[in-house]
Amino acid sequence: MFKKKRPAVLLIDGQCLLCNGITRFVVKRDKAKTFQFASLQSEAGQQFLRDGKLATGDLNTFVMIQNGKYFIKSSAALRVLRELDGLWPLLYVFIAVPQAWRNVFYDLIAQNRYRWFGKTDVCMLPTNELKDRFMENGVHAQQTEKTE
User: DSSP secondary structure string, 96-115?
Assistant: First the structure.
């Protein structure tokens, strides 16, 4: 019998307009509903970060939690693309580029995202269509391991 695949969790900066756009991008191309979302600033996001032994104050990171493993920065982004509909999974070939090189590009964008794309003072409010995919406060992550 087939085991149902658990949804992956994406932790995003809820005040970053680029991150909000990425969330909408992923949802639109995730017909299988592979991903659930939580803001890094939310109670659930903070608990996931603590459980993964990641810095709770670092909003310059993108985190994907899948099957109990934590992926961050460019590794997380490429793994997300691998799960999307369309031709996006083809970009996963860039996983072969050394992580340090990939993260130089990632860090450049992360450090300038507010200046380039803007920032809001409030976290994104999910539409009715997305509400069931956003984690509410009080969610506690299961025991997991950090992988980059």
Answer: GS-HHHHHHHHHHHHHHHHH
SS3 82: helix
Q: Would you give the end-to-end CA distance of the chain in angstroms?
A: 31
Tell me the pLDDT tens digit for each residue of 4-62.
Answer: 567 899 999 888 888 888 888 999 999 999 999 988 988 999 999 999 999 998 888 89
| Alpha-carbon 82 to chain mean position | 13
d(CA 62, CA 10): 7
**Local structure of residue 134 (DSSP, 8 states):** B
| Residues whose CB is less than 8 angstroms from the CB of residue 7 and which lie 6 or more positions away in sequence, other chains included | 33, 34, 35, 36
Model pTM above 0.70: yes
